[in-house]
Amino acid sequence: MSTDRFMGFLIGKFPGYSGMMAFCFFFFSTFAYAEPQQVLVEKGEKIFQEICTACHTVGGGVLVGPDLKGVTRRRDLAWLRRFILAPDQMLNEKDPIALALFEEYGIPMPSFGLTEEQVEAIIAYLGAGEPAPAGIPSLYIPTLLIGVLAIVALTFTGLIAGTKRVEVRL
Ligand code: HEC
Fold this sequence. Notes:
It is built from 7 helices and no strands.
């Protein structure tokens, strides 16, 4: 294919191509972020009510353990994940924050054998209403990857299928 004909080919496909891109962008950005976040927060709230409210409040003051309002801002996200997953292990490792909390509250927080997914949901619940942490949570990466792959596949489909002959005269 000569350069002229190739340019003509691209120009001919352009309307379908850009429309498809715009559609995919809005479609996947809505699904990749809004939906899972809401589901996650509700899941986290349920687990929190079942297990954590025995010792914690969110904004209601100290109970057996600290008030967890704003904890997602107060602590590093990675630290929070590790602590909720296995607080006893963090004490064993002499994590300075865990040690200080233990000293302050007098009893260690037990490990509940939660899965990483459950911990992620609890953190989403605790962080709801707080400014979103920077970066893409690992939970969204599969959705994003599928989105990108679908965009690439649809783009090629659009390039091949959408036809409109354009003659370029120089
Ligand atoms: C039996 C009481 C108890 C239960 C149930 C409990 N915790 Fe705790 N939690 C504590 C105590 C006590 C501390 C203070 C740290 C320590 O003494 O080891 C703490 C500390 C924390 C911290 C650190 C707070 C900070 O200021 O950094 C987080 C986060 C936390 N808990 C989350 C949870 C979550 C999420 C659950 C439910 C899955 C939960 N806790 C269930 C007693 C509990």
